[in-house]
Amino acid sequence: MLAAYHALYGAARALFESERNFWVVAISLAHGVTLLSTSACFLALDRFPSMDKYRLQDKRAPEALFRQAFRGLFFNSAVTYPVFALLLYPIAKGFVAVSGAAPSASETAAHLLGCILVEDCLFYWIHRTLHHKSIYKYVHKTHHEFKQNVAPAAEHFHPAEDVMNVIPFLAGPLLFNVHFATLLLWVVVRVHEIVDAHSGYGLPWSPWSYTRPSERHEFHHSHNQGCYGSFFPFWDWAFSTDAQFRAFMAKGAWRTRGAAAPAKARPTPNKDGSLPTPRRNPPRAAKKAQ
Ligand SMILES: [Zn+2]
Ligand SMILES: [Zn+2]
Fold first, then answer.
1. Which ligand does the CA of 197 lie closest to?
2. What pLDDT score was predicted for residue 286?
3. Do the Cβ atoms of 207 and 49 come closer than 8 Å?
4. Arithmetic mean of pLDDT, 220-235
5. pLDDT, tens digit, for every residue of 243-254?
6. Helix (H, G, I), strand (E, B) or coil at 15
7. CB-side exposure of 48: number of CA atoms within 13 Å?
8. Which of 5, 31, 122, 231 is most buried by its number of CB atoms within 10 A?
9. Where is the composition biased (Basic residues) (predicted)?
């Protein structure tokens, strides 16, 4: 499979005289196709009531916010990332081989794992810093407009955060001098993971389900407390920034991984022993009066 991918990469490279143009087009396509196709798959799940059991929160994000982020997917794919790729090429070309022999399977796997580990560490610290009360409102608050995640939230950022996100993403490839064919796989891996984490679903067959980033990140958005990591829970565990998340999950508050919904409290019977008529909407006035 990797050999077929490298053959495709070689054929695509041969289409471009300019290495820079190939760099820009290939990154833009890897990012845009992964972002739009993964988001479309998750949004399609909303059409199937049978998938509701995998949704982490019942409440949906406001429609206007959803539409704004949805448009952002196309803008990022068509403008933001191609511009980033163009601006970063002069820096990256000294570290990343665009032409030449393709790497072996073991080298590709080692480089991808290295990129994930470097990103996971840098993302945790940058993200945690962005939550510092002295700077949160200037940049990261934009991303937290989503209290309930949905796939387009994955790239709903303040422009300054878009730029900052390049650091954890590109640090691994530059550090390990990965081949450009591997860097493109890394784009696919990273974009898929971040869309999955913002999908609002906890799918048992997700490739990331073992480390449960979607549940951690859903809690991060709904409670705005801890869970700053991306791929792995290690840094949150090591610095106890997932304590509230673990306490929350211990209560079984979410129907995660398709588990049965928690049993609802039995209604108090009327004086004559009959059960009260269920109300579709919570009594808001009574709630306010408390
Ligand atoms: Zn955050
Ligand atoms: Zn997020």
1. 2
2. 40
3. no
4. 94
5. 999 998 888 767
6. coil
7. 11
8. 31
9. 281-290
Ligand nearest to the CA of 135: 1
Nearest to 51 by CA among 201, 275, 244: 201
Give, to the nearest 10 degrees, the angle between helix 2-14 and helix 180-197: 110
What does pTM read for this prediction? 0.85
CB-based burial label for 101 (10 Å; 0-12, 13-18, 19+) = exposed
Average pLDDT in the chain? 88
Question: If you measure from the C-alpha of residue 159 to the centroid of ligand 2, how many angstroms do you get, rounded to a whole number?
Answer: 15
54, 202 contact by CB (below 8 A): yes
* Cα(137) to centroid(ligand 2), Å: 15
CA 35–ligand 2 middle distance (angstroms):
15
No. of H helices and E strands in the chain?
A: 12, 0
DSSP secondary structure code for residue 97 in this structure = B
- From the CA of 165, how far away is ligand 2's center (Å)? 12
- Measured CA to CA in angstroms, residue 106 lies from 1, 75, 118, 189, 257 at distances of 13, 36, 18, 17, 32
| Dist. CA 258–CA 197, nearest whole Å | 16
pLDDT digits (tens, 9 = 90+) for 170-206: 999 999 999 999 999 999 999 999 999 999 999 988 8
Pair of tokens at residue 97: 């081989």
